Fold:
Amino acid sequence: MDLLSMLRQEINKADFETALHKTVTLLRDHVSYYNWVGVYMLEGEELVLKAWDGPQATQHVRIPLGEGICGLAAREQRTVIVGDVNADPRYLACFPYTRSEIVVPIFSNSKIVGEIDIDSDTLDAFTEKDQKFLEEVAVFLGEKYAWS
Ligand code: SME
Structure:
């Protein structure tokens, strides 16, 4: 079974919280350059980390909407790819080995409710293919959220 089908199946059969944990683990386990994977959910004016998988915890468990690449993606309600985090002043540093990042919004009933955040140790790791794939995963999570 391909990864997208596996994610769809796991998200469908779980409650929302379990679905988030399954998602971050499956993504990190199956894609070698997805080195740290997290899901933040929007609570008022903050993004709150709900599930993550990676070599270490981040200090950024709550991110105000005005900050970081995560805040930018939420404010602009679009996927943001940063090919070289060290060259982007908006980047909120978490791990010294991170080189690139993708943040993909999760929408539910046309409103942003959260986002998938992935850090890679590889420069320019994320392409349009990752964006399309992760936006589909975000649709599964948004649908799950709507029913939870
Ligand atoms: N780098 C993110 C903060 C979250 S960590 O990557 C886990 C940002 O710039 O918003």
Helices lie at 3-13, 16-30, 68-76, 128-147. The radius of gyration is 14 Å.
